[in-house]
Structures are given as structure tokens and as C-alpha cells.
Design goal:
This is Polysaccharide pyruvyl transferase family protein. The chain is an alpha/beta fold and 365 residues long. It folds into two domains: 2-48 and 89-200 and 350-361, Glycogen Phosphorylase B (Rossmann fold), CATH 3.40.50; 203-346, 3-Layer(aba) Sandwich (Rossmann fold), CATH 3.40.50. 43% of the residues lie in helices and 15% in strands. It has 15 helices and 13 strands. It has a six-stranded parallel β-sheet, with helices on both faces. The protein has a five-stranded parallel β-sheet with strand order 3-2-1-4-5. Helix 14 (312-320) links the parallel strand 12 and strand 13 (327-328). The chain is globular.
Length: 365
């Protein structure tokens, strides 16, 4: 079955690119003929080009100075992202920029899937293309896979806009239990909770991307999408207690979101380098959902430090794996058992099989 996927892939963001890659691989494994819809909304395309911080004053000046010093490495990282997108998945011949453009020149597919990532987060703007409104109008089969809303609640104008868009989708699955509750509140429909696409590949399958990161000795890998002082406190505790060197992957746009000091900063890591650094790490400290996800995939001791008041994405997956204690908030100390071995493979396999069952059910319409 020819299947078109609409998701966030038009970003220099590790999670966005790797979840899209893994979803395509999973669809192929399930017997679909997938292609990524090359959807680059004008707003997202413009935002993805910026490398300089919008912050004013001394803080903005210091961050932009760091960016300029590492400008060539950051450009190299973006080149590696672009190369990965070129070879890692099949995509539509046309590049689309709006829901109307998609409706006018509909991609050739029998089934359209939206997801994963925060495609339904209203704080990013409600784009009907990520709700497959163009495919619904064209009478094509539609489904969401692991769509994430990313906020604890949806009300007011956002609720009124999103409710009919979600209700029109034939088969609905989401990534978090809270998202399922929101869908039920908005539409009266039940949504199946499935795992993020990165979990649809095993560590062995991800290892096809892995190479030697060129780092000697054991290291604590830090992946921070935003700088938080209490996260830096946890990193210092880990370094002092276990003597691990700190290797940092800066976030998607370190100039805009702040910078954490480390023994080594890998400014130029592309998507495959990102996976490689997780595969070889001794332990991980992150405030990213996908940083948490790859720690789980590779059974790495980790802590996930909340960078907002609540992160239902991380909470949902850790509760399912009985690892909630690894999610820290401001004021928490490093757990004594931080570096203890753990293996979530069997529990994760169960949830992965359930998620593949959802994908396989999409063949029946």
C-alpha cells in the first residue's frame, strides 16, 4: 500500500529526523510502500535557517560569540543533516509549503499518516496539513501514528480549531496517555497510545548507523535542548561521584537555547553521529525526549531532567517502563542507584509489538 507520511522532518533536529527515518523503516517492515511528504512550511523553513541567538544584552552577545567561534562546525552539522535526509528516506518529488498546495497537487498515496513528534502542539501553530486536512478533503484513508500534542491541555480557540481536524482522521494513535485524554475530551473518541517511532527499531537495527565516535575512555553523554542550571548541578554530581568525562551534544540551536560547559563538545554531530554517541556512552544526562528514548534503546543508565514544569512525553514512556525515578525535577538530587544496570528490552518489546499491530491494522479499511 502506497503510504505518505507528513511529519516534522524539515528541521536540524535529531529527534525529528530520526523518528521520521525510523517510521519509514517500520512501515517498510510492515509491508507498506512509504514515502515522506517533503513538507516545508514557509515559517519552519525560515526558522530552520537561523543560527544566531535572538537574545539581547550580554547573554545574547556571549552565546552568539560561541556560535561564531564554532560556525564552521555548526555548518558541518547542518551539512550532515542534509546528507542524511537525502539518503535515509524516500520522499515526494515535489516540495510542499501549505495545506492548499498539498490539496492542489496531492501526493500519490492510498494512505496518509501524520506523526510522530509534536505535530499537534498548538503552541507551534495549528497547521491543518499536520492533521491531514488535505487528504480528508480528497477522500483518502488517514491515520495518525504517535501524534504528540506536547502541552498538558488544549482549551478555547485552540480546542475549537483542533477538535474537528482530529475528529476527521479515521484512525488515531498518540504518543502519550495525556494526549489520549485530550483527544477524548475534544472529540469523544478513543486514541490508542503507541510508542515513538524510534522505538520501532531495535538497538541492533540502529547499529547500522553506528560508528566509532573517536572518544577514548568512559564518558557521560549530555544532550540538552535547553540550558538549565539545575541540570548543570546534576552533571557536576555525576562527574564528581563517578569521575566520568562530560561529552556534550549541543541542542538543535545552541545559540538560541543556551550552552552547557563540558570536557568535549561535539558541535558537528549529524544524526548518525548522535546515535553513535549514545551507543558508546557509559551513561546519559538529558532533558530531551529523544535523548531519553535512545538511552532506553541502548539500556544506558540515565537521568532525564525536566526542562519545563511538566513533560508528559517523558513521564508517559518512563511510567510504562517502570523507570519513573529517572525523571528529575529542580531540587532533586542524583539517585544513588543512577549507574546501576537496567534492561527494559522485554517491556519495550511488548509495547513495540502493540504499536506494530496498530500499523498493520491500517491495511484494513
Amino acid at each position: 500500500m502506497k503510504t505518505a507520511v507528513v511529519t516534522f522532518h524539515a528541521a536540524y533536529n535529531y529527534g525529528a529526523v530520526l523518528q521520521a527515518y525510523s517510521l519509514q523503516k517500520a512501515l517498510e517492515e510492515a509491508g507498506f510502500e512509504p514515502q515522506m511528504v517533503d513538507y516545508w512550511p514557509e515559517t519552519r523553513e525560515a526558522a530552520s535557517k537561523s543560527m544566531m541567538s535572538p537574545l539581547k544584552g550580554l547573554k545574547g552577545l556571549v552565546i552568539n560569540l560561541l556560535t561564531l567561534i564554532n560556525y564552521s562546525n555548526i555548518r558541518e552539522r547542518r551539512r550532515r543533516f542534509d546528507d542524511f535526509r537525502r539518503w535515509a528516506w524516500k520522499k515526494s518529488e515535489l516540495r510542499y509549503q501549505s495545506n492548499e498546495h498539498l490539496l492542489e497537487l496531492l501526493p500519490n498515496a492510498e494512505l496518509f499518516i501524520t506523526g510522530s513528534d509534536q505535530v499537534w502542539n498548538p503552541s507551534s501553530g495549528i497547521d491543518p496539513a499536520y492533521f491531514l486536512e488535505f487528504a480528508v478533503q480528497s477522500g483518502r484513508a488517514t491515520a495518525s501514528y504517535a501524534a504528540s500534542i506536547g502541552v498538558p491541555d488544549v482549551q478555547g480557540d485552540d480546542a475549537r480549531a483542533m477538535a474537528p481536524l482530529i475528529a476527521a482522521i479515521e484512525r488515531i494513535s498518540v504518543r502519550e496517555h495525556r494526549a489520549a485524554e485530550i483527544v477524548r475530551n475534544l472529540t469523544g473518541r478513543d486514541a490508542q497510545v503507541v510508542v515513538d517511532p524510534v522505538f520501532l527499531q531495535t538497538a541492533e537495527q540502529w547499529n547500522t548507523l553506528v560508528k566509532d565516535p573517536g572518544i577514548t575512555g568512559d564518558y557521560l553523554l549530555v544532550y540538552a535542548v535547553r540550558r538549565r542550571r539545575y541540570m548543570e548541578d546534576i552533571i557536576r554530581q555525576i562527574k564528581q561521584r563517578y569521575g566520568l568525562k562530560v561529552v556534550l551534544i549541543p541542542g538543535t540551536n545552541p545559540a538560541a537555547r543556551g550552552f552547557i560547559s563540558a570536557d568535549r563538545v561535539v558541535w558537528d554531530a549529524g544524526p548518525a553521529d548522535f546515535v553513535s554517541l549514545f551507543a558508546h556512552a557509559k551513561a546519559v544526562c538529558t532533558n530531551s525526549f529523544h535523548g531519553t528514548a535512545f538511552s532506553i534503546i541502548y539500556n544506558k543508565p540515565f537521568v532525564s531532567v525536566s526542562h519545563t514544569k511538566g513533560d508528559s512525553r517523558v513521564t508517559s514512556i518512563l511510567e510504562r517502563l517502570d523507570q519513573r525515578w529517572r525523571q528529575l525535577k529542580e531540587g532533586d538530587d542524583l539517585p544513588e542507584q543512577f549507574l546501576s544496570d537496567f534492561d527494559c528490552t522485554s517491556i519495550l518489546d511488548y509495547h513495540t509489538r502493540e504499536s506494530f499491530s496498530f500499523l498493520n491494522s491500517l491495511k484494513k479499511r
